[in-house]
Design a protein that fits this description.
The chain has about 325 residues and is of the alpha+beta class. It has eleven helices and twelve strands. The chain starts with a helix and ends with a helix.
């Protein structure tokens, strides 16, 4: 079955690339043996639409136009389906190969593998992995567990507004948010969406793990300008807690919270099973501390302690 489909796709691609004028479905059916064997028009139409989508997924640019008889026709112009010369050296090719291994999410893993195959077909050198043998036990990975990731990734790419239900860390129930998505960023193992919140008429950052239900697309154009990628990354870092202008003092259970210990300016070991740390305090620290649950107690400042308590109460309420 796989061989038959591959042969059918190859024949369709050759027909579309070899014609100088648009070919109608009727003409394509008469030119490809597998289509002639289709039982009826409905079976042929389903088969043809699937094949056309598969070829486009593989990167073939197929145009849909009207031919001289007024029928819808299809063709793939050679100039639109020709890769420019690929001029990558062995080190650049090796870097791309390593980057392609990073993605764990199925759709992106397949896309990365397909992109490498196309580049190699276009002349990119086959390069050995310079890190081979060094990362067999530990390899770079970008995990994507949130169901909202893929629809938001496509919305960012296509510049489509979206609607989703979002539960703030301090709220017991989610609220509907209308957002113009800009970019997705990964920080401390969590994915964040930066975008323009239409209801609040301001820039906002959303943690994907707090999005509930489905992400729904909305028609229409963006109403706010999209900043450059550097600004978006700075925004995510600031909202997620990267910027710190104060110091907080916390008690941390011995033998736990190693990420917090790595950020600490000082650590004072205690005799009661608890250590006292001074850590940078910026926006988002309260959300991070909540992740460590009963292993962390905030000593000061009082506003940070209150924020952590509010978040814990919200979690307890469900």
């Amino acid at each position: 079955m796989a061989i038959a489909k591959a042969e059918r796709l190859m024949n369709l691609a050759l027909c579309l690339l070899g014609t100088r004028r648009p070919l109608s479905k009727r003409e394509l059916r008469g030119s490809i043996e597998a289509y002639l064997e289709a039982g009826n028009d409905e079976s042929f139409n389903r088969m043809f639409e699937r094949d056309k989508d598969d070829l486009r997924e593989l990167g073939l640019v197929i145009e849909t136009v009207e031919n001289l008889e007024g029928e819808t026709g299809y063709l793939a112009r050679r100039d639109s389906n020709r890769l420019p010369p690929v001029s990558l050296d062995a080190e650049e090719a090796a870097a791309l190969g390593l980057a392609a291994k990073v993605w764990q999410q199925a759709r992106l893993a397949g896309a990365a593998s397909g992109a490498l195959q196309k580049l190699r077909a276009g002349g990119m050198p086959e390069a050995g992995d310079p890190y081979e043998g060094q990362h067999s036990a530990i390899e770079p990975r970008i995990p994507v567990h949130e169901a909202a990731f893929e629809p938001l990734m496509l919305a960012c790419r296509d510049r489509r507004p979206v609607v989703f239900d979002y539960r703030k860390s301090t709220a017991a129930h989610p609220e509907t948010r209308q957002v113009e998505p800009w970019a997705l960023e990964c920080w401390r193992g969590h994915w964040y969406l930066a975008g323009f919140d239409r209801d609040r008429e301001a820039e906002r950052v959303f943690r994907l793990s707090r999005i509930t239900g489905k992400v729904r697309s909305r028609a229409g154009r963006y109403t706010a300008p999209v900043p450059d990628v550097v600004t978006v990354r700075e925004t995510v870092a600031s909202w997620a807690g990267e910027s710190a202008d104060r110091t907080a003092r916390i008690r941390l259970r011995s033998g736990s919270g190693y990420p917090l210990r790595a950020k600490a300016g000082s650590v004072k070991e205690g005799d009661d099973g608890w250590d006292e740390l001074e850590i940078p305090y910026g926006h988002g620290l309260d959300a991070w501390l909540v992740e460590f649950g009963p292993d962390v107690v905030v000593v000061e400042p009082a506003d940070l302690r209150a924020d952590v308590m509010d978040r814990l109460r919200a979690v307890a309420l469900g």
